[in-house]
Amino acid sequence: MKSKVETENSTDEKIENLRLEVSNMLPDCSLKEVSDIFLDVATDLTGSRHGYVAFVDPKNGDSVGISFSHLTGACQMYEDMGEARFKPLKDGSYGGLLGYSLDTGKAIYSNDPANHPVAHGLPPHHEPVERFLSVPVIYKGIVLGQIVLGNSKEDYSPKQVSVAEKIAELYSVVLKELLYKEQ
User: What fold is seen in the domain 4-178?
Assistant: First the structure.
């Protein structure tokens, strides 16, 4: 069994390897290609079975899931389309647990998401979500996207939030480079 220090070093090494891999890919990669790598690393380092990586469309404010694991039958349709697009509500928010990080710019996790005060249920035929974690992707104070993780092997804690936030920090640079060059 690895010690806490060995595990932290391993996590830091994997995040540094992600940074190096992505910096070697930019700017000549597709957003989908690089987002898939972020999803793989985020699910691996947090022990999550599922995940979702999204950006905020700079043209219309839609939350666009570009890399995601399959939790519903509709996920294959989204995969075939290349994205899962969610428009903001009339008040400009995204709502619910899925939209919390986009709405507040803050991380959230729950090991009982069905009973969380901001939860508003799951779509039909959606696999149950027993544990939930979401972090915003922020660049210079502006929310550019989010990384959502679910159904980890053990309860989420501030440790997994910290790991996901480090990954989101790297992803913010990617989004700035590939989507927000002029801003």
Answer: Beta-Lactamase (3.30.450)
